[in-house]
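Dear colleagues,

As part of the handover before I leave the project, I'm documenting each prediction I ran so the next person doesn't have to rerun anything. This entry is a single chain, and its sequence is reproduced below.
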Amino acid sequence: MGDSKSGDHDVAAGYRTPEHRLEAVGEALDALRGSRRAVLTTHLNADGDGVGSQVALAAWMRALGGRAWIVNPTAFPDMFRFLLPAHDWVLDAGSAEAREVCEQADLAVVLDAGEMPRIGRVKAMIEGVPVLVLDHHQPGEHPIGGISLRDPGACATGELVHDVVLAGGGPWPVATLRGIYVAILTDTGSFRFGNATPGAHRIAADLIARGADAEDLCRRIYGEQPLHRLRLLGRALATLEVDAESGVAWMRIPEDAEGRAPTAEDVEGVVDYPRSVAGVDVGLLFRRTASGGTKISFRANGSVDVNALARSFGGGGHVKASGALVERPPDEVIPMVVEATRRAVGQTRGGGA
C-alpha cells in the first residue's frame, strides 16, 4: 500500500479533483487537520456511503495523530462492521461516553447528510461544536451550517473523503481505502447506476492500486447474505405489483411472524427489484417502521426526478434515488404514493397529469 507523496490532485489512475471543488476541499482539510478530538456522524439508518465515509475519515484522522469517534443517530449497521479496525470507535448515541465525547469535541463532522432532521438525536448532542459537512445530496430546506464541502455531482460522499485525503497527501490506512471503496461501491450500485462517473471509476482504480481488495469487499457486501434476509426477500417479492401502462412497480416489506417491523439493514437493496422490472420508470418500496409509520424508497430508471417526488412527502435525496418517512400506516400511504408516482411518470413521458 503506497502513500500519496504530495498534495497534488493527480494520481496514477488519472483522477483529478474537479476544479470547482478545490477551494472547499482545502477548507475541509484545514478544519480536519486542526482537530484533535472529532465526532463523526451521518444520517438516520446509515448506509454504505455514510458509514464507509465515516470509517475512512476516522482512520485517516487517527493516523495523523488525532482522535475520532463515530456517534450515529441509529445503530451502526452490522453488515458494515467489518470495516471497523476497532469496535470501540463507535459509541451509542444514548451512552454517557458518547455525550462526553460530543461535549469535549472540537469538531463535529457530518457525512452524507446536509439537513438537520437527517441526523436525529445527534443534532442536540453537537450544539455549540464547530461543524464540517461533507455531503453529495441536493440542497434541502433545513441545511446544516458550518464549513461545507458539498457537491451533488460527486458519486458518493466517499468521493469527497477521497479528495480530502488526496489533498492532504495521505496517509492511506487500509481502513481508509476500504471505507472509501465501499462508500462508492454501494452508492453506485456496484457501478451500475448513472452516478458511476469516470471519476468514480478512476477513484476505484486508485484505491485498488493503493491496496484495496475489490474482490473481498464485493463479496462481503453482496456475496454474504444472512439467511433471514433472503427469506424476507422471498416474502417481499410475493407482494410485487406492476402497472406496466404507467411504468410504476412497487413492493411492500412484510412484518415478521410476531408483527415486528424489519430494519433498514434487513431491506438494503431490495428496492432495486421493482426498479429492475422491464419497462418500469420508477420502482417503490414500502415498509412499516417500528413506530407504525411508513418508510418509502424511490428509485428511477428514466428521467423522473424522484427527489422532487420524495420531497412532496417530506423526504428527499437524489434525482434517481430518494426516500421519505410518512407517519401513517402503509395501507394509507401506499395508494397515494403510487398515484403520485403515476402522475410524475406521466408528466415526464409527456402524458400530462
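The chain has twelve helices and twelve strands. The first strand starts at residue 37 and ends at 41.

All the best with the project,
I.
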